[in-house]
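INFO  loader      accepted 1 record
INFO  loader      residues=121
INFO  predictor   begin
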Amino acid sequence: MTPRQDIPVLQVTSLTVGDVCTVTVSGDVDCLTGPGLQEALLDVLDRSRPPVSVEVDLSRVTFLGAVGLRVLAVGHRLAESTGVALRVRCGAVRAVVRPLEVTGLWHMLDVVDRDGPGSDR
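INFO  predictor   done
INFO  writer      dumping tokens
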């Protein structure tokens, strides 16, 4: 059975090593798949012993819609309130960098690979 081409695919994995958890995201983050990213991120941040740092790797994301942006903002607020450092890695992926720039999230989030505004591209 082959997968249907019209169904958005999102893969989210998390790997914790020591006190750092990396949440790796690939595919489209839209209104259909965003809840999967939210669930994965909240599972990491709601642990009884959360990691000291969470890095969300968006370098394999092909589309970042409004729901994905909201998930990142909510994750940022939750991490901040629990003392967890939340970082975002997006490389030079325009599908991620541009929405972060336009909404102002680029300056709110801790983007660890600065290929966006104010960087030496």
